[in-house]
């Protein structure tokens, strides 16, 4: 079966992010943010995927032989592609963005480019605002081990040529050479960038690194030579083997590997100009080997460009796109009453997440509400959702919170709020490590007239996180339809007792029925095609990796089913291959908002079945996570989702094909369609309905 490796496919996605930084059509300061996203993505890739491959390479030969692919071969291919992208990244920054900034009268200066007046200002700023933040550590015989923090930038100082002391003073002079290291104090300084005084319309900025470089000679007056360079270490974030091996082999591998403590080094990025003496000293004091060394550039942590000063006219950034009021949800008054009358579909970030937090606050205050249950996968640091749940506990509601402790890189916020809710009296369920709960579910139970009880639910593709809800595109369904709310209650019951998997009629639940139901739906389209009837599948997902479902889609293509894939990130299926996937087309979009929603559409002979889901088509989502795909019963809401999908299918501005080539208008003078902008404008025109 012809497929693309998961890791190389992910790197293709990050290349699409870099294309946004390279595009003249993207506002200049937004291009800097795409550089930051690319850099942040690559850091995570090294911490998780590259670290995993390196640990697989170190396994015993007999164990390694049981893997489907050679980890050594995979690692070699991945590092070669990373090197190619790093070179393109550096060229984009130096040859495109720095000149474009200068043309916009924004100058990012190194210490060598300062005028005399600017140098005097920088040295004064260094003395007053930076010097006291610095604590260099000498890499000498008194230091047994140097621990470098994960993802922090460090500056190294190579001191040479001691100055001759005046006169014949007694005492030992400075050593001929010294190596020192300090952590760049970005947080204590208040950011990575320093704004210099403007000169007329010309604006000037420096990296904090370069301010320190300018002031470094004053730190070490006894030395004539002071060379300053940057390094950064990425550490192994997690033993991430579950996607690589079977459960039996996974158990063997885990038993053969030591538990991670502070994280094994995954990559040491260093300035190529770093003196060999400094590199030798770093390796000796940290235990880093040549395998972990990656030549980078003068500057690291480009994700700090998220904090670049917001200079200049509005056209340097995307125009504001304020969230739109929902056409069927009330701006004031009871959301529960509105949900009780009909289903409503929320489209984030085009419409505000505030409807969700309002619903939670209403439930917390409503004396008729008896219980609230919710799944929390990624929680905002200052979570309005968690605060509303605390209010519900205080008001005597039975609050059940299913918390995922292993939501990678969000563990700290999740643990903080879980402990706070637990102390307040909420029933907090921590998911077991072998089965993450990735479904996004909220259930409210309310006593109503004649002693009846009614449930209200919110099912979503996105997290209960107001920060990411302003950046990610997601769909969320508000419903009181008993067909769905009864089954949502069954999912929460399973999360509580972990005994008998619920038998559901309408929700597609992983890891129990989702895979089988998807297979049945694809098979039905294959049968229709064999009968000569129209057959089609449209999938909008973030990742397509599962070998079983890829095989099934290939079978659908060979049977004549028309398959359209809108894949944001990992896409291991290879479309357009003769006699295999010639009926499969794939595109992906990268634009100002991160595409995050998942939608599955099956033609079903003209009576389309539309599911919205938390699950990508990856083995981990289908077999090792609690995921939910839910149908849209309301015809109007199905039409809404299909319209938004059609914008994505028609996009000829931001869409790329499988090979990362832009899909332009056909013919060339055809109207330009930019899906995210078209979505916003279409939703803006939606008339308010009762």
Automatic annotation (TrEMBL):
One of its GO terms (molecular function) is polyphosphate kinase activity. It comes from the Bacteria. An intermediate of this reaction is the autophosphorylated ppk in which a phosphate is covalently linked to a histidine residue through a N-P bond. The active site is at 438 (phosphohistidine intermediate). Residues 4-108 form the Polyphosphate kinase N-terminal domain. ATP binds at residues 41, 472, 568, 596. It catalyses: [phosphate](n) + ATP = [phosphate](n+1) + ADP. It is an enzyme of class 2 (transferase). Mg(2+) binds at residues 378, 408. Residues 335-498, 507-659 form the Polyphosphate kinase C-terminal domain. Its EC number is 2.7.4.1. Coiled coil: none annotated. Transmembrane segments: none annotated. Keywords: ATP-binding, Kinase, Magnesium, Metal-binding, Nucleotide-binding, Phosphoprotein, Transferase. Residues 118-308 form the Polyphosphate kinase middle domain. Its cofactor is Mg(2+). PANTHER family: POLYPHOSPHATE KINASE. Belongs to the polyphosphate kinase 1 (PPK1) family. Catalyzes the reversible transfer of the terminal phosphate of ATP to form a long-chain polyphosphate (polyP). This is Polyphosphate kinase.
């Amino acid at each position: 079966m012809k497929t693309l490796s998961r890791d190389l496919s992910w790197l293709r996605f990050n290349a699409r992010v870099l294309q946004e930084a390279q595009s003249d059509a993207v506002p200049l300061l937004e291009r800097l943010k795409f550089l930051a996203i690319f850099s942040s993505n690559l850091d995570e890739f090294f911490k998780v995927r590259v670290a995993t491959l390196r640990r697989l390479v170190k396994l015993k030969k007999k164990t390694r032989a049981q893997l489907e692919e050679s980890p050594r071969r995979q690692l070699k291919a991945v590092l070669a592609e990373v090197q190619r992208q790093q070179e393109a990244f550096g060229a984009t920054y130096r040859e495109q963005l720095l000149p474009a900034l200068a043309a916009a009268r924004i100058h990012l200066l190194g210490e060598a480019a300062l005028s005399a007046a600017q140098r005097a200002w920088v040295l004064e700023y260094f003395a007053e605002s930076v010097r006291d933040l610095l604590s260099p550590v000498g890499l000498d015989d008194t230091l047994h081990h140097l621990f470098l923090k994960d993802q922090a930038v460090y500056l190294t100082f190579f001191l040479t040529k001691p100055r001759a002391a005046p006169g014949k003073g007694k005492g030992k002079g400075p050593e001929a050479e010294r190596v020192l290291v300090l952590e760049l104090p970005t947080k204590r300084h208040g950011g990575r960038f320093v704004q210099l005084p403007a000169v007329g319309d010309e604006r000037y900025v420096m990296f904090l690194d370069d301010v320190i470089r300018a002031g470094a000679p004053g730190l070490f007056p006894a030395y004539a030579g002071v060379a300053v360079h940057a390094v950064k270490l990425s550490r192994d974030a997690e033993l991430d083997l579950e996607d690589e091996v079977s459960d039996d082999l996974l158990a063997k591998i885990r038993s053969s590997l030591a538990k991670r403590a502070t994280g094994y080094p995954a990559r040491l990025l260093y300035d190529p100009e770093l003196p060999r003496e400094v590199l030798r000293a770093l390796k000796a004091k940290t235990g880093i080997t040549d395998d972990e060394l990656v030549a980078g550039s003068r500057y690291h942590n480009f994700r700090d460009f998220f904090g670049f000063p917001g200079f200049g006219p509005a056209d340097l950034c995307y125009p504001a796109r304020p969230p739109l009021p929902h056409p069927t949800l009330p701006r004031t008054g009871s959301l529960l009453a509105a949900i009780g009358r009909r289903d409503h579909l929320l489209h984030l970030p085009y419409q505000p997440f505030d409807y969700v937090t309002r619903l939670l606050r209403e439930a917390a205050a409503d004396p008729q509400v008896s219980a609230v249950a919710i799944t929390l996968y990624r929680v905002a640091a200052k979570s309005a959702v968690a605060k509303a749940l605390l209010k519900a506990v205080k008001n005597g509601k039975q609050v059940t919170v299913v918390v995922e402790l292993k939501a990678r890189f969000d563990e700290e916020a999740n643990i903080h709020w879980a402990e706070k809710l637990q102390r307040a009296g909420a029933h907090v369920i921590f998911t077991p490590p072998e089965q993450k709960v990735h479904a996004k579910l909220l259930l409210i139970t309310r006593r109503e007239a004649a002693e009846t009880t009614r449930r209200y639910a919110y099912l979503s593709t996105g997290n209960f996180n107001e920060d990411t809800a302003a950046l990610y595109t997601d769909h969320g369904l508000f419903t009181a339809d008993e067909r769905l709310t009864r089954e949502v209650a069954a999912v929460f019951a399973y999360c509580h007792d972990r005994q008998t998997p619920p038998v559901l009629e309408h929700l597609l639940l992983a890891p129990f029925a989702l895979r089988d139901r998807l297979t049945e739906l694809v098979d039905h389209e294959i049968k229709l095609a064999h009968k000569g009837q129209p057959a089609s599948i449209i999938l909008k997902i973030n990742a397509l990796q599962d070998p079983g479902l890829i095989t099934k889609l290939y079978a659908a293509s060979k049977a004549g089913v028309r398959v359209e894939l809108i894949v944001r990130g990992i896409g291991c299926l290879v479309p357009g291959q003769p006699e295999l996937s010639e009926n499969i087309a794939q595109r992906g979009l990268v634009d100002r908002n991160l595409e995050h929603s998942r939608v599955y559409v099956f033609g079903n002979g003209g009576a389309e079945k539309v599911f919205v889901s938390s699950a990508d088509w990856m083995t981990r989502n289908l077999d090792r996570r609690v995921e939910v795909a839910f149908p849209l019963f309301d015809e109007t809401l199905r039409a809404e989702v299909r319209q938004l999908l059609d914008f994505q299918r028609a996009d000829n501005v931001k869409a790329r094909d499988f090979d990362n080539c832009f899909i332009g208008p056909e013919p060339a003078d055809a109207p330009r369609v930019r899906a995210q902008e078209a979505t916003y404008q279409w939703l803006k025109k939606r008339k308010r309905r009762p």
